[in-house]
Every structure is written in structure tokens, then in C-alpha cells.
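Usage

Read records sequentially. Each one opens with the input sequence:
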Amino acid sequence: MKYSFKILMVCFSVFWVSCSTQSLFDKAGLPIVKVDKDPLVLHNDSVRFKLRATIPAGLVSEENNYTLLPEYQYGEGALPLEEIKVDESDLAGPGQAVEIIRNMSFPYMEGMDRGELRIKGLMEEVETGKAFTTPYMTLATGIISTVNLARVGQFAPGENIPEVGAYMSYDDDFMNMAAHELNYYFSKNAAQANPSSFNEDFVGELKSLVEKGEEINRIIVLGMASPDEGDYNSLAATRAQVAEQQVRVQLKKMGYEGDVESIDIVLQRKEPDWLLFRHLLRTFEGIDMKERDKYFDVIYADDTYESKVEQLKEIPSYNRFSKEKFGEMQLAKVMVMMAQDRRSDPEISAMANMYINGTATGDELTEAELARAATFNPGLKDKQLIYEAMLKKHGSALAYNNLGVVYLNQAHRMIKISDKNNKVNQAMRLFRMSNEINESPQARHNMGQAYLMWGDYGAAYLEISKANALAKDNPEFQRFNEGKRGALDIIRGDYKLATLRLDKAPETATNMFNKGLAYFLAEEYGQAAIAFEESALSNMEFGYAFYGLALVASQNSDEERLYENLKKAVQRSPYLKLRAATDLEFRDYFEEQAYIEAIK
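and closes with the structure output:
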């Protein structure tokens, strides 16, 4: 009987304490919570706000802890934010209310614009773990994401597809020089003169150059070796010397009219050549992309040449690859620079069209002429064929870079995400190869554009900044590059710096719109309006310029200009039409009939 009574008393005590805690929780009421922005605002890549909260007296003590649970609810789900935990150590004094000020942030994701920031309170008994929660309280509704309007080469359905990337071009002076590339092959691990059938093409091509009767200005010789040959440096250097001797011998045999001994023949020291290796890998059939990536992982690693060779041997397809392709690396490259009259543009264009149509091999044109021909052919498929022809014969930094630009623009036009990503990845490899031959601002800029297409703004900014440093002697390219860098500054949240960069950029419709957007986000509305107007004057079909003018009109409470410009914007862009219907920059006008009519 006594035992049953004790159990009853314990149960009653627990019940009484629980009721007491519940009563305290109900009586104290809801916490008072506010944020400094409603709606919230996207800045850089995240939504940031300051939260102030007052937790009523008595809810935090030795017996009870309190937690604020914020979340951002959008679509069909919610993103939990950082919990704010409070215990007795946060009390200024026993039984007092607790004041909290906290800087908060969360990453922005597509679809968040029309969500809501809400919060609830949770009190827990320290001893029993029993919890009591408040209802959710709404702190802010929606996100203003105006910064997402920055144009960095993207486009929406129904809009014109912008061209992206930077092609490399030849100077006119170089068009007067023809670089004829010949290969002199050696037996494996050998550096003796090799009169075998492997070098019949070398002799034949050199003879055809001599028969032109033109002066040879310079010859550059590069010795090379394959990964399965020993002592790369010694073998490559000896092969260059032997190839030089063979060039002089053959020129004399063929009756070259000039003084063979006076020809400037330069022997260049070549580091282990992964460029040609990668080129051969690209043309090696029978392995998939995953297997090919294993080779790239090895050769791009920060390791010695010898260590890389040992790692390559572990790849399953190595034996087949080395057997089929390494013979093409056991050579000396001989580049013969000859003076010649430049072909006319119509001649170049006609010969290029013959190649594109399959009635010529592409060998009829020099590298400079192929590059020139590509500028006459706006179609991406034609450009691709021409630059691929350049790669097969020359493998120059220009050919790799410009083919990569073609791939970027092809990726821009692909609907399937996996196809687009694969094409961008191929372009990035070409830009790396271009930079390894000769680091250029164009290839760096293009690598940044590729990262932009992946949505990696941090990596894009680094690459485009490197491009600017490399272009210190090319002010025209710097101005072009600053346009993209200024747009990225907007995304990064540095609006003042963006205006300074875009001041230097070419005055295109896109650059002027971005400049206006930077001024708008910096709350310099007068300057923003001027830039948006200049953007509209540059291209009256560019809907974003009119959307920018509508944003300024909204800030100035100028309803007539707001409706006028918004109507022009939505007529030119289906994306802007959808955006205007929910853009919280215009929230004060959503119910106005004139606004509804303007965005129809």
C-alpha cells in the first residue's frame, strides 16, 4: 500500500511540473522576432539579414532551454536555417527576458523568390526533455533578386542567343608568312638519320617547298620523344641536331637556290610534350571518355615526367595506345618559314569552301589562311571544320582556343543538360591545351566563360581576372574583358567596382544594361537611368534595357514611365514577362489594373 502511494505521488509530481511548465510557456507568450528586411534581398550568392529577438521572461532558466528555429519555406519544401540556442548563460539576470541580435544568411536557390521566412520557438525541460513549441511566425515574405538580371552570356527561352568567348586572330603581318610544318621520324630509342619510308613525306614536302622557288626565311626544329623511350632530354636534343643536318643535306640535294648555310635554323629545347600526347589521345579510338580521363588525371598532376610515365603504364589501355600512337611522337618537328605573297581574301574563301564541301583536303591553305578563312564563315559547323583542320596539321594555341570557342557556342544551343556539360568540358580541355602552348588572355577569358556556363562564378572571376593581367599590352581586349568582369562584380555584390569596370567596357547594349543595373543596385538611380537609356538606344530590341528603366521608374514612383517601359520589356522577352508578374521590385503595383495590362 505504501509502495503504491509513493508511485502515485511521483506521477502526480511529474504531472504537476509538466502542467506548471506548460502554464508558464502559455502565459509568457510568443517571442518577439523581427528582421531588418521585408522582403529579403539577394546579395552576392546568398540572402543576408539581421534578426532581432526578445524571448519573454521566465522561459529561460536552469530548468528550461529555449531555441529559435528559423526556416525559409518555398515551393513544396523548406530550408532549415541556423538554430539559435539560448540557455541560462545568456540571461542578464534571473527571470529576465533574453535579447538576441544575430546576423543570418542562407544560400539562394532558384524558386525562392516567392517564399517566406518564418520562425518558431521551442522550449525544452532540461530534466525531462519534454518540449513545447510555438506556432510559426512569418518574418518576411519573398526575396528581391534583382542582381540575377546581370547579363554574363546567359539567355532565356524566346531570347536571342548571344555569342560568347574570345577568338584569337592573326596579325596582318603574319599573313605574309607561311609556316610549313614537316615531321622527320626516328626509330624507337634511336637518333640516327632515318632514310626509311617513314620520311618519304618529309622529303616530298620539303621538295615541293623548294620547287616554289621562294626564299626560306627561317627554320625552327623541335626534337621530341615518346613516353616509352628513355632519357627524354638527351634523345630529343640529339634528334633536333640530326633533323637540322638532314634539312641542310636535302636542301642542297634538291637544288635550293639560296645559300643553305646562311638559313637561320633554330634548335629549340622542348620539355616532355604532353600537348602532342593529348592530341593523339583525342584521335585514339576504342576508349570511352572515362578511360580517357584517367590519362588526363595523370598528365595534369603535379608530378615528375618519370613518375607520370610510370602511372600511365597502369592504365588498362596503355599498351594498345602506346603501340598504335607513340610512333607519332618519335620525331623532330621542322617548321619552315617562307616569304610569300598573301593570297587574296576571295581566293582564301574559295579554297576554304572547297574544303568545307569535301572537295579539298585543307592542306592547300596555311595555318594563317585557315584562320583567316574561319572569319569568313559565320556558321559554327563551318568554323568547327576549319579549326579541326588546323589542329590536325598544326596543333597551335590559336586552333585549340578557337575550336574551344566554337564548342562553347554549340553548348549554348544544346537543350539536354548532359550534352551541354560534356561540350563545355571539351571546350575547357581545349583552352587548357591552348594555354600550355602559349598562355593567352583569350584562352583565360574563355575558361572563365566556360565556368560561367557551369554557374561557378568564383572560378570564372579568377580566370577572367587573369585574362586582364595577361592583356596589359592589348587595351582593346582589356576593354572587352572588363565588360565581363564588371558583370561578375555585380553578381559578387561589389556594385561600385562594377560601375568603374563597365565605364571602360565597349558601349554595347549588354554592357550598358549591366552598368545601369550596377548603378541601380548601388541606389544611384539617376546614373542608372542614363545607362539604361543608352542601352535601349544601342539596341531597341533588347528588352532588358526597358526593364531597367521600369525599375528606376518604380523607385521614383513614376507610374506612367513604369507601365510604358514595362510593356516594351515584356513584348521583347517572354522571360521578363514572367518575371514582372512576381518581381517584388514592383510589389506596390501588383493590384493596379494598369500594371496588369502592361504585363499582359
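Summary fields computed downstream for this record:
- The longest helix spans residues 2-28.
- The two ends are 82 Å apart (CA to CA).
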